[in-house]
Amino acid sequence: MVPTTQQQKIIDSPGCLVIIANPGSGKTFVLSEKIKLILPKLYHFQGIIAISYTNKASNELKQRCLKNGLAPQGSFFGTMDKFYLSEIVVPFAKQLFGIPKNEINVVKRQDLAEELRDELNWLDEDFDPEKLQKEHMGFLKKMFLQGQIVLESVALLALYVFDNSRACKNYLKARYAYLFIDEYQDCGKEQHALFLRIKNIGLVAIAVGDANQSIFKFSGKSSEFLIDLGKRKDEFELFPLDYNHRCHPSIINYSLLLLNDKAELLMADSIHVFEKKVTGNEVQIAQWLAVAIPQYKKGYKVNAANKIGILVRNSRTGKLINDNLSLPHKYFETTSLDEDFTIWSGIFRELLTIVFDSKLSKTEFVGKYIDPDTNRGRAISILKAIKQLEDDFGADDKNAVKILDQFEQLAKSLHPTGYNQKSIELLKEIISSSKLLDAYKPALDEEVQIMTLHKSKGLEFDVVFHLDMYEWILPKKEIENRQQFFTDITQDLNLHYVGITRAKKSSVLCYSTQRTNYKNEQKTGNSSEFLDIPVLQNKRLPSPF
Amino acid sequence: MKITKLKLKGFRNFKDTIINVTKKTLIIGSNDIGKSNMLYAMRVLLDRGLSEWDVEPKDSDFYCYDDTNELNVIIKFEEVTEDCVVSKLPGKISDDGVLYLAYKAWKDTHEYKFYAGPSMSKLEEIQERYYRKVLHLKYISSNRDLHGYIRKEKKNLLKEAQGKRTKKEVEKDDKSLSDIEKNLTSVNDKIIGLSYVSKATEAINTELQELSFHHAGQEVVFDVGASNVSSFVENLHLASKVNTSNLAIGGDGRNNQIYLALWAAKNEIQDDNPLEVVFYCIEEPEAHLHPHQQRKLAEYLVNTLKGQVFITSHSPQIASEFSPNSIVRLLNKDKSTKAASGGCSKIIEDSIYEFGYRLNVIAAEAFFSHAVLLVEGPSEVLFYKVLARELAVDLDKLNISILMADGVGFETFVKVLHALEIDWVVRTDNDVFKIPKKIEYRLAGIQRALSIFKNNCATDTEVEKLITSSAKTLSGFSTSVPPKASIEAAGKFRSELKKYDIFVSDIDLENDLLNEGLESITLTHLGVDDKDEALKLMQKRKATFMFEFLKTNAKHLKTLKMSKLAEPLFACQKLIEG
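YS: structure for the whole thing
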């Protein structure tokens, strides 16, 4: 296999890299080619760290790297958890905590005795791994000294051990020259923190991921961390790796430059990112959309209206468009369940989506939680339960109590330790309201979809109309003591990035001369600061329609 | 990284011993004290040459005086920062670069285990000595097969040099070789053609034909052997050239040097190697070498070897090249081998500081003694050596050295001996010195003896009392002849300090000789009839006088057996014989 120009650039680039790749773009090929160049240059006691998401992926990478008889030297090929355990926690926690009384065993939270399990409930909360409470680490230490490492706490332990053991840092630095992590979009907070720390002790760090494809949209794992790496232009070179052109290259280029003005770009023969300034307010935008959408649909050969997305920053704008758009459309309301980031709430959201959308793969969904190869029986019974749920929802006389119970049972078998009463309450609220339930049903073919940028994560459209490109709104800005400041520029940039990259064929950035604020007052609409970024000026065109 | 400490428990001669070591360590001690055992302990953990079978414990590996069932060998390493080692031992090296490796074995089961960890309390069993790929020890035994090694390495030398040739050189060599081959064939033919060579086998061949019909057509001939050019070249001898004429190499001393030079070259020990950390153990490198070459070799080993080096030796010449704080002196104490002052230590370093960096060879000899009689100068050394012979005190058998404190000073010398736990006896003159810039005098000899006592001996209430009551009278009198009170005090000190083997002469050797019954013999020897005149002559050239005197009058020294002069000698004998 001969590398493409784009792939060759990545293979030859010597420093720290972030590679934003699409499925099928030859990630594994590029990684193995890079590793093959590196291995012969290392001393016999040195190696590289290559972390993949699954054992299967890891074995494949390893085989590809070593197939021509190359010695692995002291390299590590494996999953993140295996790396945490064998290279950090097991050898070095002993120095910090002491030698365990019993042989070290990794246990799942669900297999612990109940009273021990309850001591770990804080793991489900949204906490900052850098500011872990003393008693929490104390508990993990106590477990360790008894020879038990709770699988779900391994990342936390690894971060703690790394930070507190100079010997651990010395070891990693002496032993490894490079750190490769694949599927970075599924990275957790701890993993992201550790990746950056390992880079800072002197290893060359290379992250690969698909910003569009985070499997876990909850439990702290998110493509945000990949996007964060992309923005660190002084530390990493940012490369796109796009082989089958899921998105038009001009959209990829635009999104990469948004993160990092030094990003490596793809070849693009035309520009499919547009800017539209509408005279008037949101009502006039809705009127413009009614005219423009059919034209874009025709121009970009979009065969169904539901492949067009209107994405908004605020649900206020979403409602206004919903009320004023004359084309058939569906507005996905943001529910309280959507705004809760616990594990069970995440499971409920996904279950609701899956139950209502027959096109989504249930097997794939189950596979994210349990390995169907090793737990065949369990996987089958879960799939059956989902099917039952579908039937119950479809029944004429819906039994809300039964349905709720089924959800709870399913969540229990998928993620036993995530039990959360609040999630159940939120779900109950949704099940009892057909209006709220509607937010989880797919749009019909002839319906244009309207939703918030938040809700659009992980989805894709042929054409996206990205609204709310106003100053004060995106990025959100406030005034305090006569000082203007951005409330969360990082999150807003990520949202904007997500919004642009939802589009496969064309992305249209819209604002208007007037906008409606939260008090329903009409304000002058100025363009967003994101539109002012110099490198982006010639990467978009005025909307042709 | 470096080894800083060894702990040997229940192992061979070692009951429970801690030995501190340093970057270049010299291990000394009498025969069978355990020098090689100490090295062997390190080798068990670090020498790649020792297989699993070798490290399986034998009954003789266990300390024999107690009912020892468990043996422990623990090595402490510090400053472990080399990447190759750090990468191989995750979790076993502490934050500040400390590593312990341990070997434990049990007599009843003949089981053994290896351990590693960042501290003594965090040692964990490891399955094998896998770290030896990056962390190991090279050992040269004292019984080295010089000839075998040189023969083997000779081939390697040629081979390596062959490999390093340029293309041009290869071509030139090949041409030369084909010339040689032609010449060889012609030489071979000529040799075989020598009449006595061809005739020499005639008789055998006739016999062979008679013996068996099978031999028909076969014959035995003398052959040059190396008709093959490459085996001819490989048959080269290493020869020393002196002004272009060959000198056969064969002396063991020369071979020993060649051996070490070859070994050093082969191991590339002069280069920093990022791939491994190597320690070196060399037993008795002085073998077969004359004293100057011993020193040269020691200097070479100390300065050239990049890694940490452990050397055992019986040679004062080698010892004098080591700073004394890097000397581990092994000795026997309570049926176990111990290291004096715990091995290389601050105590020794401090006491050596005053010694000057390097010892002279004579002082270094002291380190190999069981007891040292420390005297003033060369005439005392001559005198006591002869006296010992006449009084049948066998200095060599008892391993007693008689050394002069001249140049180093009694106090420093004793401090070093004390630190190395070598028994000592001091005999110093009863000097009276003037105090500078004052018209006052002091009993310097007694004060010196007292100071040696204070710094090196146990506390003694009798002496303490004496110090409080009389120390003042030892100094500050106004005439060079001390007043009666001072002389009395001196006498009391003298008899107390004697108990601690610190002897102060009545006046000095010459005076004492005359006063202890050898006056008439001395006067006769010198051909004078006045004692004062004799003293003048004796003290004019002390050593020469003593040498001449002893040459002809040695037998008279027997009469000194019960005298005060003989006391220090018998004190030495008593220290050893108990």
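YS: worth flagging: The first strand of chain B starts at residue 2 and ends at 11.
IM: good catch. Also Residues 167-193 of chain B form the longest helix (27 residues).
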